[in-house]
Amino acid sequence: xxxxxxxxxxxxxxxxxxxxxxxxxxxxxxxxxxxxxxxxxxxxxxxxxxxxxxxxxxxxxxxxxxxxxxxxxxxxxxxxxxxxxxxxxxxxxxxxxxxxxxxxxxxxxxxxxxxxxxxxxxxxxxxxxxxxxxxxxxxxxxxxxxxxxxxxxxxxxxxxxxxxxxxxxxxxxxxxxxxxxxxxxxxxxxxxxxxxxxxxxxxxxxxxxxxxxxxxxxxxxxxxxxxxxxxxxxxxxxxxxxxxxxxxxxxxxxxxxxxxxxxxxxxxxxxxxxxxxxxxxxxxxxxxxxxxxxxxxxxxxxxxxxxxxxxxxxxxxxxxxxxxxxxxxxxxxxxxxxxxxxxxxxxxxxxxxxxxxxxxxxxxxxxxxxxxxxxxxxxxxxxxxxxxxxxxxxxxxxxxxxxxxxxxxxxxxxxxxxxxxxxxxxxxxxxxxxxxxxxxxxxxxxxxxxxxxxxxxxxxxxxxxxxxxxxxxxxxxxxxxxxxxxxxxxxxxxxxxxxxxxxxxxxxxxxxxxxxxxxxxxxxxxxxxxxxxxxxxxxxxxxxxxxxxxxxxxxxxxxxxxxxxxxxxxxxxxxxxxxxxxxxxxxxxxxxxxxxxxxxxxxxxxxxxxxxxxxxxxxxxxxxxxxxxxxxxxxxx
Amino acid sequence: xxxxxxxxxxxxxxxxxxxxxxxxxxxxxxxxxxxxxxxxxxxxxxxxxxxxxxxxxxxxxxxxxxxxxxxxxxxxxxxxxxxxxxxxxxxxxxxxxxxxxxxxxxxxxxxxxxxxxxxxxxxxxxxxxxxxxxxxxxxxxxxxxxxxxxxxxxxxxxxxxxxxxxxxxxxxxxxxxxxxxxxxxxxxxxxxxxxxxxxxxxxxxxxxxxxxxxxxxxxxxxxxxxxxxxxxxxxxxxxxxxxxxxxxxxxxxxxxxxxxxxxxxxxxxxxxxxxxxxxxxxxxxxxxxxxxxxxxxxxxxxxxxxxxxxxxxxxxxxxxxxxxxxxxxxxxxxxxxxxxxxxxxxxxxxxxxxxxxxxxxxxxxxxxxxxxxxxxxxxxxxxxxxxxxxxxxxxxxxxxxxxxxxxxxxxxxxxxxxxxxxxxxxxxxxxxxxxxxxxxxxxxxxxxxxxxxxxxxxxxxxxxxxxxxxxxxxxxxxxxxxxxxxxxxxxxxxxxxxxxxxxxxxxxxxxxxxxxxxxxxxxxxxxxxxxxxxxxxxxxxxxxxxxxxxxxxxxxxxxxxxxxxxxxxxxxxxxxxxxxxxxxxxxxxxxxxxxxxxxxxxxxxxxxxxxxxxxxxxxxxxxxxxxxxxxxxxxxx
Lengths: 637, 637
What we know:
Two copies of one chain form a homodimer.
Chain A: H1 20-31, E1 45-49, E2 62-68, E3 75-81, H2 83-90, E4 96-98, H3 111-114, H4 119-128, H5 133-142, H6 146-158, E5 161-166, E6 169-174, H7 183-194, E7 199-202, H8 205-208, E8 216-218, E9 227-229, H9 234-241, E10 243-248, H10 261-277, H11 286-290, H12 295-301, H13 323-333, E11 336-339, E12 350-352, H14 367-373, H15 382-395, H16 399-411, H17 420-432, H18 435-440, H19 444-451, E13 458-459, E14 462-463, H20 473-481, H21 494-497, H22 513-529, H23 535-541, H24 543-557, H25 565-583, H26 595-599, H27 613-619
Parallel strand pairs in A: 5-10
Antiparallel strand pairs in A: 1-2, 1-4, 2-3, 5-6, 7-8, 7-10, 8-9, 11-12, 13-14
């Protein structure tokens, strides 16, 4: 981005078998200095589809995004399901690396020195930087005042760009006209300009503010801005490079090369069968019928659904925003349910939520979003939650972090719990770029600090998802020890503790290091494949499902991986990430839940988070260190 | 504070020889959990006069304040010169430990649950908490609305207290009437109520907002709120306990016990002679004539005076705010110069700055304050700086952090560099408690994050003082490696690098680990004695001076310390502090300067901070680890 150049590179030998999180974390760890400022020139953004993404393997349209996180200060991988990813796969693009930063002609801190100099001086600088002479001339004509000339030049140089990718190549185009626009509107206009069928990745107003709670947004099936690699603030990293959108058109793409068709087809069938057999993922099953939000009632009944900034684990009103209630409303209103997030998904947990009159489609209201913007803020009304979710998608912020931020703001006195109207106003503060907006756009921990709130539910600076670790200890172990900060997807212990998938475990049992570690390894591996995390339900219970996944990988890569390689590969990815974090200054003291959860009892279970530090340290303890010099075939994929 | 109780304790055997920083850091390290939230119930504030403080040893009226810092997340010792400290010494109070937190009757997060309950329910809670029945009754009469009843009760419970200490004992009094008042006004009223001669320690409006840039304020010789243990946010820690002021009256105090009068008198004479002989500290010498601000011209000429948020090391306009210019103005206006910060100081570097007509005495404008609020913000006008300094003192914030915060805000676009009026308005935002104020009150790093500024001059979250580490490397080594965050007083390499005190060193030479380490040890030891840091100039050059200090310590303690013990004692204090930080999650990655200083060349020297990480790690490297089990007489003092 500093040179406004686009270059293609062959995939290095070492990276041939990598994909998704395996590839993003490997590139970030080897190319980004762990001690760099996340918004400074040395950070990078890496986007990579999974290994099988772009094929017709079921539910495999995930994209991973990596970089150093402005929210956690550590390495970050966030992923999303979107046709954008499949298009990259079909174009045989293994990764996009966005590096460099549009250089300011005149650093802001030299204003007062420069404005004392002559216009000639400014022109000299401009010339030295090889700027377009005509632009300078126009600037001079338009601006009599030297100071505004400087500002004008700076703004031009800092303008936002769009990376357009087709089968014929890639180029950077001016995208300044979409700056400071909501993403729903911007995506509509981008589709008008570049075609209905293009895939779009973009960052919103919040990222332009360089807020630490900003995601990368991807198009949904209808082209809307509703699919997010949301967590960890990578949106701001992309915006700080000067890149606002990536538009991809896969017309005439060669498709994913498959080295062993037989293995691939066999694997695809096994996985499809498993997904269609398992109760959680089958057609008419829990996810298909009610979406992820089916968890509201389940987790509430387990007394683990955090209410009002993690001050209770249960509230009877929660059922008003359950997946069951929502599915009924969607049917009444004429929304869509079920619905895939990308072509070829057979789980189809998604949906299109609409207003009571059927207007203003939002996209999906996920369990995490419903919880964060709902019960965690004392809000038990789906229409309010829908509007809050729409505002998050439009601004380009992560709903989990946003809901936690609003809840902390409520605890800090900016609103009463339950006041949905005020919650919406708070999000509008971000849109307006007010000082309050600048606080909120930086997430829950930042907001808590601004307001003097000591009860802040974060790990490594990232806010907790929708499961109370005091009532469900294993997920707390994952929150504490994931290299990503508090992240349920990094090792979804809920599956075993609550749903009985992959075995059973008492939620209140504190010995959860093994469970969390195994799940963290499995997830890291899965995040590399491009398969949706929800395939995990089926493959944890049905051995042929996992075999199927491995066979499709062998099909695409021409390798001979076995199911036994999966945890090893996952471990290697985690260790690469932990090494980065260590070099960035993380220690075991960062693998802890917030202090208040160890002191405050959570009603109605009246439990504290009583997992000993030693148990937490066992998850990635020294005895779990990776093998030196991984053997052939055991590199991360 | 949770029980509103005051208890006296005998000094434990182990702590008999400790004082000042040696005592505060020892207590904090042994009683405060390193992983606690700085504003939560488990943090403590410890105040301790130095070992000789309260005697007539020259320039020995320092007080140390310790706790876990909300700014750095590590241990903090900040100190000030004030008669308050001497009064504690004369009352034979070795330390004040403020612990516990006023418990809220109803946690904020239970509002919405509670307001759905009956008044009876609220009364039950109140009864359970043993609150004053009459108060509850009054509350009920005054408030028809249940919600405001809850709020009213909470406010009463959260009200601020005042700790009054006399020779007859100590008690906690209601101090709510001084809440949300400026400190100049509050100190006037407190003197009216408790007497002209009392010593006062207090925290301001900014601390009530629980901002991370908030200091503990002590009275100057005229009783004004101008002497600060400013750095690291301990003001918010005190406010979050519920304590607003400590008022001490030493009438009838027994005085400091001196175990060996002969040693004490001999030491006092040697130190006095050294101070009166050395060019920096003697009557009519640099500090006495011009105060600390004498450094403006010296450091500017060395091209190490940071300008406009550390974007240059020199600006010819700096001389307008030099100590020489200021001394002349003070004389013209009828201010006071020289002036001691506490009775018995023979250096007398202080002063009383006034407006052009002689009104509105501010107190001293120190070099650090003048620089931070002046050149670092592009402001070169003493009257503007005086007003900014007065506002900081009145709000209860540290001037170094405040000046850096304003400069970062200017870089982030909240004001133009040089705009003094706007800078004053920004401080007023804090007074008003606006969202902008809530950002600014949390310091430079927080403000930079809110505004998306990547050039933030902080170490461990604490902003840099008035010396450019790219032009003067040794002070950069201290900034990076001090357990306190960026702190010039922890190891004042400027003495050697610029002033030729304690030897000579080329400012651009990068081998500065030994210099910084030796100075950090010497300083930590000195901070335990109660002597002003400025005695260091004399004792570094005149061996009898250091002998004198050690003899006065032996005089008070009845020990037989020698000058060789001084670095060992200093090392032990530093190691206690570093152990705390390690347990709080600090690593060598925290012992680094900000990234931009390694990338950006500083005009006019065009130097980067090129001290290798290995040199930084040598300062407190493993080979420098403290002896196990310190021998008798070698404990920190």
